[in-house]
């Protein structure tokens, strides 16, 4: 069970955390990290959290297993969206956008993030 959970966290980390990610690197990073659907079609959207993995893990501190948790800290993210709908690897082409002041919703298991659910903009009210 622990090995499976660790591999789920490692997959989350590979697919969603990259502290050096920029909006213009979507094509190269998606390809290098081998982020595709199971049938080798291109993933429609993928979100990268531009921060340190330790900060992202803190979202799950003190949370019961299997629950969605919203971060209390804000993050910068890069959202990569497929430009050529219906494409298959290795022909995926993405448009990236940097978004700031975002709260994150992730699914936590054993105090580790295992699924990225959504981002929520903070309007500063």
Automatic annotation (TrEMBL):
<dbReference type="GO" id="GO:0016787">
    <property type="term" value="F:hydrolase activity"/>
</dbReference>
<dbReference type="InterPro" id="IPR036816">
    <property type="entry name" value="RNaseA-like_dom_sf"/>
</dbReference>
<keyword id="KW-0255">Endonuclease</keyword>
<keyword id="KW-0378">Hydrolase</keyword>
<dbReference type="Pfam" id="PF00074">
    <property type="entry name" value="RnaseA"/>
</dbReference>
<keyword id="KW-1015">Disulfide bond</keyword>
<dbReference type="GO" id="GO:0003676">
    <property type="term" value="F:nucleic acid binding"/>
</dbReference>
<dbReference type="InterPro" id="IPR023411">
    <property type="entry name" value="RNaseA_AS"/>
</dbReference>
<dbReference type="GO" id="GO:0004519">
    <property type="term" value="F:endonuclease activity"/>
</dbReference>
<keyword id="KW-0540">Nuclease</keyword>
<dbReference type="InterPro" id="IPR023412">
    <property type="entry name" value="RNaseA_domain"/>
</dbReference>
<protein>
    <recommendedName>
        <fullName>Ribonuclease A-domain domain-containing protein</fullName>
    </recommendedName>
</protein>
<keyword id="KW-0964">Secreted</keyword>
<comment type="similarity">
    <text>Belongs to the pancreatic ribonuclease family.</text>
</comment>
<dbReference type="InterPro" id="IPR001427">
    <property type="entry name" value="RNaseA"/>
</dbReference>
<feature type="domain" description="Ribonuclease A-domain">
    <location>
        <begin position="5"/>
        <end position="120"/>
    </location>
</feature>
<dbReference type="GO" id="GO:0005576">
    <property type="term" value="C:extracellular region"/>
</dbReference>
């Amino acid at each position: 069970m622990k090995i499976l959970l660790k591999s789920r966290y490692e997959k989350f980390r590979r697919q969603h955390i990259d502290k050096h990610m920029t909006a213009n690197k979507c094509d190269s990073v998606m390809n290098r990290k081998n982020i595709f659907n199971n049938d080798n079609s291109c993933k429609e959207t993928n979100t990268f959290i531009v921060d340190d993995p330790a900060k992202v893990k803190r979202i799950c501190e003190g949370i019961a297993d299997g629950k969605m948790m919203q971060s209390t800290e804000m993050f910068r993210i890069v959202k990569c969206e497929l430009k050529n709908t219906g494409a298959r690897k290795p022909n995926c082409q993405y448009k990236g956008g940097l978004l700031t002041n975002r709260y994150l919703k992730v699914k936590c298991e054993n105090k580790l993030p295992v699924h990225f659910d959504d981002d929520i903009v903070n309007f500063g009210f």
